[in-house]
Amino acid sequence: MVEPVFWPRLRWRMRGAWQWPAFGALTVVDALLVTRLPFQGDGPDTAGALLLAGFFNLVAVGVAAPFAGMLVRRARPDLPRMIARDYAGTALLAVVSLALLTGGLVHRAGLRHEHAARAAALLAAHDYVLSSAPHFRAGLAAPDVRRLEPDSYRVCVYGRETLPLCLLVNTTQRPPGIVRDPDRTPNLHD
Known about the structure:
Oligomer: single chain
Shape: rod-shaped
Strand order of the largest sheet: 1-2-3-4
Number of domains: 2
Number of strands: 4
Strand content: 5-15%
Structural class: alpha+beta
C-alpha cells in the first residue's frame, strides 16, 4: 500500500528538485559574469560579485518564485505547489543570469570607451611631462589618476618635490587637452 504513493511523489520530487542545485551553480556563474562582464562601472571584486549574485538569486528564489509558482499552478493545476515553486524558481534563476549577461554585454561598449579615455589621459600626461616638466619624469612609472567626470581626468605625477604635478586632461579633444592644475594637492581616492 505504501509503494503506489511513494513512487509518484518521488517522481515529482526528482522533476522539481532543480532549484537549489541551480541556485548554487548559477550563483557562481553569475559572480563570474559580474566580474568579467560588469553591468555598471568596472565591476566588483570576486567577493563582492559573489555577494551581489547571491543577493539577486535569493530575491528571485525567496520573493519572486512563490508568486511565479502560483502562475505556474494556474497553467498546470496538476502540479503540487512545491514543484510549481521549484520550476518557477529555477526559471527565475535562469532569467537573472540572462539579465546579468545582457547588462554586461550592453555595458561593454561604455567600459571600453572608459578604458580608452583613461589610457589617452595617461598618454597625454606622459607626453606633457616629457616635454614640459622633465624633472617629474621619475613619477611616470606610477601616475595617480582620478576620473572627474566622463572624459575628464586629473593626473598627478610625483617627482623629487613633495607636491606632485597635477594635470587636468580632457579626452574629448584630439589630441587630449591638458591644463596644469594650480592645486597640487594629491588625488584623494574613495
